[in-house]
C-alpha cells in the first residue's frame, strides 16, 4: 500500500503539471503531440532513456490524459534503464550508449506493433481531438500575485485538501517515510516536482483548481490509478513470494525473452 500510494502520488503530480501546461498554452502543445503519433514514439523513447523513473512517469501521465497511445507507453518502458543508467554511463559509457541506441530502436518498433495489434492505427487522425477541458471563452490567469491572498482568505475545500496532501507528501519525503531510505537524486526529483505542484495548487485561481485539478484529476483519475497500481503490486507479490517466479525467470532468460 505504501509503494502504491507513493507511485500514485507521483503520477498525480505529473498529471497536475501537464494539466497546468496545457491550460496556460490553451491546449496547443497537446494538439501537436496528439496529432503526430510517430513523434509520440520518438518523444516517449527520449523520455524513457532519461536515467531514473521521471521520464516513464511523464509518459504514463500523458497516456492517462489521452495524449499518447498505449504503444508510446510501451516504447518508454522498453527504452528506460531506470536507476541503473547512472551506473552504466559511469562505468561503461561506450557500451551504455550503444545499448541505449538499441533500446530506442526496439522500443519504437515495439510501440508501433503494440498499437497495430491493439487496433490503434499510428496514423489515426482522431488523436488530434481535444482531450483536455479547455474553456475557450475564459481566460485563465494562472498566476496573479494580487489574488493569491484573497483566494486563501476564502480557501475552498479542494484547495485545502490538495495543499495538505502535497505538504504531507513533502514531509514524508523529507523524513524518509516514502521514497528511498537514503537521500539521493530520486528524493531530490520527487521533492522538486512536488514543490512545483504545491506552488501551482497554492496560486492558481479557484476555477482552474476546482474544474481541472480537483474534478478532472483528483476525483476522476487518482482512484483508478491507485487501484490499478495496488492490484499490480499484489499480483507481483504473489508471483514472486508465493510462486517464486523470480527464480524461474532468472533460470530461463531465453524463455522470458
UniProtKB/TrEMBL annotation:
Regions crossing the membrane: 6-29, 41-65, 85-113, 160-179, 185-204, 225-245
Keyword Transmembrane helix: yes
Keyword Transmembrane set for record: yes
Pfam families, A to Z: ArsP_2 (PF11449)
UniProtKB keywords: Membrane, Transmembrane, Transmembrane helix
Record protein name field: Selenocysteine protein
Organism: marine sediment metagenome
Amino acid at each position: 500500500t505504501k509503494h502504491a500510494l507513493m507511485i500514485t502520488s507521483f503520477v498525480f503530480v505529473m498529471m497536475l503539471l501537464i494539466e497546468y501546461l496545457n491550460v496556460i498554452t490553451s491546449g496547443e502543445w497537446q494538439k501537436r503531440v496528439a496529432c503526430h503519433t510517430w513523434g509520440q514514439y520518438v518523444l516517449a523513447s527520449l523520455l524513457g532513456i532519461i536515467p531514473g523513473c521521471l521520464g516513464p512517469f511523464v509518459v504514463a501521465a500523458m497516456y492517462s490524459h489521452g495524449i499518447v497511445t498505449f504503444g508510446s507507453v510501451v516504447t518508454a518502458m522498453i527504452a528506460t534503464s531506470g536507476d541503473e543508467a547512472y551506473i552504466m554511463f559511469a562505468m561503461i559509457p561506450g557500451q551504455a550508449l550503444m545499448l541505449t541506441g538499441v533500446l530506442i530502436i526496439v522500443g519504437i518498433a515495439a510501440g508501433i506493433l503494440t498499437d497495430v495489434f491493439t487496433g490503434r492505427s499510428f496514423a489515426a487522425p482522431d488523436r488530434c481531438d481535444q482531450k483536455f477541458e479547455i474553456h475557450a471563452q475564459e481566460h485563465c490567469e494562472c498566476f496573479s500575485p494580487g489574488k493569491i491572498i484573497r483566494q486563501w482568505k476564502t480557501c475552498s475545500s479542494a484547495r485545502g485538501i490538495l495543499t495538505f496532501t502535497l505538504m504531507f507528501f513533502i514531509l514524508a519525503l523529507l523524513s524518509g517515510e516514502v521514497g528511498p531510505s537514503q537521500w539521493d537524486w530520486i528524493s531530490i526529483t520527487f521533492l522538486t516536482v512536488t514543490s512545483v505542484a504545491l506552488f501551482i495548487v497554492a496560486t492558481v485561481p479557484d476555477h482552474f483548481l476546482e474544474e481541472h485539478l480537483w474534478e478532472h484529476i483528483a476525483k476522476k483519475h487518482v482512484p483508478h490509478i491507485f487501484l490499478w497500481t495496488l492490484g499490480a503490486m499484489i499480483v507481483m507479490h504473489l508471483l514472486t513470494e508465493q510462486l517464486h517466479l523470480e527464480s524461474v525467470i532468472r533460470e530461463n532468460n531465453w524463455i522470458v525473452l
